[in-house]
Amino acid sequence: MSKKSAIIGLLLVLLLSACAAQTNLASSTSPDSKPRVLASTSILADIAQNVAGDRLKVESLLPLGVDPHAYQPRPSDAAKVAESTVVILNGADYEQFLAPILNHVGGRRQVIEASAGLTPRAVPGDSASPGGDPHFWLDPNLVITYVKNIREGLMAADPAGAETYKANADAYINQLEQLDTWIKTQVDTLTPEKRYLVTNHEVLGYFADRYGFTIVGSVIPSVSDEAAPSAQQMAALVDKIRSSNAMAIFLDATDNPSLADQAAKEAKVKVITDLHLESLTPADGSAPTYIDIMKYNVDQIVKGCQG
Fold first, then answer.
1. Cβ 143 vs Cβ 176: under 8 Å
2. pLDDT, tens digit (0-9, with 9 covering 90-100), for 94-117
3. Of 263, 264, 297, 261, which is closest to residue 278 (Cα–Cα)?
4. Distance CA 53, CA 70 (A)
5. How many whole angstroms separate alpha carbon 277 and alpha carbon 290?
6. How far apart, in whole angstroms, are the C-alpha atoms of residue 145 and residue 37?
7. Is the dihedral of CA 215, 219, 220, 224 positive or negative?
8. Domains in the chain and their CATH numbers?
9. Which residues, listed in sequence order, are joined to residue 214 by a DSSP beta bridge?
10. Number of other residues whose CB lies within 10 A of the CB of residue 301
11. Do the beta carbons of residue 134 and residue 94 sit within 8 Å?
12. Phi, psi at residue 233, to the nearest 5°?
């Protein structure tokens, strides 16, 4: 484990310990305002909002369209965390940008780790991410675990709303199961020899595992796009693409496409630059909810793999 990851892990433990005496969420605000809950990312906030329903307002710490791997916390972020009564994290070392805040924040809060109980995929050779791949949400079946963990956490923080959270969670789990069926139907339009993925960084592993894709490789061999590939790694990726049936390199809308463009030119494949893998879009965009994100990305992936 890297020193940085060890520090982050220690800070999370300290924060969780400080929250042992949980604050009752509903009683912490005035009667005429909704209690507010803070999630680390917009995707996580949307998932949590579906569980919270009208009873709570869930806010995302990260703004829309921001790459969490490169995010630099602002002073206002520390204030939001300090004032929160519930914080929802993805876990699996994903929230490294929160380390400075967690090191200094005060107050008590309920901390919910959405991915608790899930086992991260190992990413061979990725020394920068010893915790494995944190991108569980790109398989909606794993998001069902998120929903259950969030439901239990909100029930603990606000026992009076337990029935509401249970009903909302059940309804949203049903939507996720329908989403999974829809994705399978779309992917089934691709023959097995078309199901090859190349990404900018290691992000679609859980999606590939669930829906029968082969990951050829990634431009940046890490779960974070802050790492940098060597010339040898770039050359090896180009060789892998040429020897596979991969038709495209898929990028998140926030990714810098320069290295992917270089690899694609050499391998003679296209680059698809507008997936939404780490953030929602604004309400008038193509992916304003988690379910919208998955449908949009699947459409782009299926079209890209068809050639």
1. yes
2. 998 887 786 677 667 889 999 999
3. 297
4. 31
5. 10
6. 19
7. negative
8. 3-178 (3.40.50.1980), 185-306 (3.40.50.1980)
9. 196
10. 25
11. yes
12. -65, -40
